[in-house]
Here is the input.
Amino acid sequence: MDLHTVDNGILQHLEEELEKDDWNVMISHFLGVDHCGHRYGPDHPEMTAKLAQMNNVVKNVADRIEMDTLLLVFGDHGMTKTGDHGGDSEGEITAALFAYSPGLNMVPANPGSIHPVQVSQVDIVPTLALALGVPIPFSNLGKVVEELLAKKGESPAEVLNKKVQALAQNVQQVQKYLQEYKKVGNELFGELWNRLEQLNGKINKDLNELTTREKKMAYTEYLNVAKMMCETVWAKFNIAEMASGLILMVSVMALIVLMVLSQANDVLVLKRLLLLTVGVNSLFIFTPYASISVMGYVASGMIVVWLYFHHRYLDCKSSDINITDGFSLFLTLCIYLGSFSNSYVVVENYVISFMLLSLIIMYSLISFLRRQRKKNMSTLSWKNVKVSLNVRNVVCFMAVIVLLVSVRGSSSYWKCREEQSWCVPSQVHTPMNGLPESFRNWRYFTSLFALVLLVWLPRRWLIMCGNLNGSRLGVLLVSYVPVITGVFVAAHWALQAAPLQNSPLSEHAVVPPRLTFAVTILFVVAMYCIPLLIYEVPPKKSFGPVVNHPYGFVPQVYHKLIEKYHDGNSKNSNIPVVYGLATAVSAPVVSIVTALLVVLTMLAGDGLAPAVLVLVVTATSCFVVHALCSWMTANNIETLLKPSWAALCVWFILSVHGFYVTGHQPTFSSLHWSAAFVGFTGDWGGSNFFPTLLVGINTFMAQILFGISLPLIVLAPLAIGVAFPRLRGNRLESEETSRGEFLLVDRPEKAKEAVLFTAVSYILLHAAKVFCSSLSAFVLRRHLMVWKIFAPHFIFEAVGFLVTCCCVVLSTVFFLRVLKVLYAWSEQLRIKNT
Here is the structure.
């Protein structure tokens, strides 16, 4: 560790700056002692040498300062015998304070005592404020250091009066702060608050009757009690409640591992698990920690559901976790453990992008090698691997390249943290009206182009799949609603860029966003009610067996359905022809996601519209890679529907990556407050609900997007396989995979199990990250960076987890609704053709 570079750099300029008279405050931050303590500890010879160097620096500066200059030398913390800090031991929270000035008459408060005067670090704030002649900061709780107020030549009475005046200003400031703090409903410790009120009354009523020394004692007691009360309230950690919740979470996660590896009867396992979790949670019901019991019941219910589908659907054995899944879970575990490092949290956006790229490359490579092993050999060696340039391999390679480029390019839209000193802020986060006029048109049309692609690409996919044929109400809504809302958003951005002061348009600037919100909500409700995007060709217009058509896929009801609809003696040859049937389940989900993309892009702002497009391109590339890898390794329809842990981990990491791509950081200073004014002028009728909701949607748009589109992980192999038959090759033809998603009608239970397992597993991946964030905040609660880094990280993770849960539940309910309506339609078709 470098002990001298920073210190030597300061020493090169310190003497020069001392000679100048253009400064009022000079701060020299020497880091060598801190680095030396971490590297060698306090008793090493290197520490002795470093302290000797600092002694010489202090001596030289003290000899050069003038009469009206105050020199303060102090550290921000101490250290343990091993050179560490961050805890609450005496050695860690104690540091020396050296004060010197040629013009001050500093007399120790207890002369002759071996114990030095003790002050708190917060006492430096009011002392420096009074010394510089500026008001004491509003939220200060420190007490002015009296020993630094006596000048040489002043009598004891003059010194005492000066101290009383300084303490009076100090008390007045603290009183004002505490009164304002209590007004907003914050908790203050009852007994100490009553004591403060008594002291306050004594100071205000009996002030004229008190001697100067008694006034000083009253002021000093008031400030000491005020600081003690606030320390009691603010530094209070309920260790029992925190530990109980964490132990419960650990117990539940341990049960998951045990049940997954268990070979016992499923029903017996679930009964024992249910009884055990109910028993554990019941221990907390009649305690002050009853809220833990409620959370425990929710967690237990989710785990029971997960285990049910894990055992029933996956038939989990040790062999189910292949090398791809193992590598994916290992990378995910590394992300979890990173929550315990403040350095990791600061650069999490960099690490997440690296993890995502590593996982995608390994996922596609191992899937290819597994396919080669199944196809060509019983044992796989590198010299036997034959790379064939078929369409599937080429497309998979190109999808990985697109993903690499999009992930690397997304760094242009990251927002800088305060701790990222190397980061250069991007202009994409600057409001349109804050840009130079020459730059506004360029950014507007770039953002408009990104918005057009966000609407056009999903629309083009649906047209190609035949889901926008016919005149069903749902088809018409999907065809026009995203286009209309896109026009509204473009108008909103144009009005933002235009000078609206004293313009008749200023009163109508909120109309386009409000129309976008209203139309999107109505569209989502309508799609839930009428989700089918298919077109059944009337019998008189049927034109025989057709596989492809210029306007989309026209999958037929194949012979399995014909056998189901007609008995063996039926001579009916009217085979129905239906447009969009092969993607009938994914098409409504894609439509909902498209409508939400328009709203999320509007809330993100015009500058981040390209970032949303880059994120969508990244997600689409992941879908393609996942679909192709599934076709490479699947042995039957059940394994094709089963999303691997690798795919779930990719989607989980991609959602975390999306949080940073959309210009966010887990810090409160990075919140996009401008989103609160999208559709509002600032007058919210006394309620903060809507602006809070808009800022929340803006902050967690990635969690919303990936939670709503989660069912597409199950559907992507079927949809891409039927859209591009050459990509799936000749595999599973016996299963009639050319029917696409309509084959789920024959397997409704498997489809439900697949999507429910995907939903619960995805939620658990996020829950594990929240657990690690909460555990890190608990373990490092005395860390110097707990309130700066760990606590905000935990808060953002927790709220994002709640948003993820809500969106995953909604998307799962919508998927089951589409499946139910499609099944009902097929039954009506069967009755009609019987």
The mean pLDDT is 79. Strands lie at 71-74, 97-100, 535-536, 578-579. The radius of gyration is 34 Å. The first strand starts at residue 71 and ends at 74.
